[in-house]
Batch of 3 targets.
Target 1
Amino acid sequence: MTTTWSGRERVTPPPLLPCSNWKDSAVVTDQGLVTSRNPGDLDAFCDKLAEEIREGRHDKRAAA
């Protein structure tokens, strides 16, 4: 899958850190962090964000 803007093309997903995981999902959550792929996923993102807020505080996770 490619994305083009300003006459330049890039491959999606972008280069990742060696320890990262990329998921092709509208919304991904991890310990209360909510992320999405693009503005087209805004409805799903907002729904999941509201759900996470209703769940309350998540335990902190130390960086590896």
Note: Confidence is low (pLDDT under 50) at residues 1-5.
Target 2
Amino acid sequence: MPNDTALFLGQFLRNPAAIGALAPSSRRLAAAVCAPVPERASRSSSSSGRAPARSPRRSSSG
């Protein structure tokens, strides 16, 4: 059975677009990505914090 490095390089050579990175991320980056995101205070008391709803686009082929 091939080792992990050989398997990784083989997959990279077959389909390089499918590989996200050539080197693994650090533990520090992994911890930062997984850390909880603090909530922000609302800007006004009447704001729901949601983006306004948009109407659907109409097809130009009709």
Note: The chain has a mean pLDDT of 77.
Target 3
Amino acid sequence: MIIPYISVKLFSGRSRESKESFALAVRQAAIDILGADGQYVTVAMQDVEPAVWKDQVYTAEIVDNPHLILRHNAIVSPAGMKKDD
């Protein structure tokens, strides 16, 4: 059985409706691509303030964990933060 827990972090400010639409699309992708049973797919979304994105997300979760990242814009992070900024 496939029971995915999908965690998404994004800049704050999006509507609940847009986040729910995104979560439904991600859930459907887990069903279609991974073969997961929809009743066991969990999608969590966490708003992150842009002011703390670099330290809390970009550096701590992206740069420091390259073995976990499957898709990443390796040249520049949000707001023009280069990898070595």
Note: The radius of gyration is 15 Å.
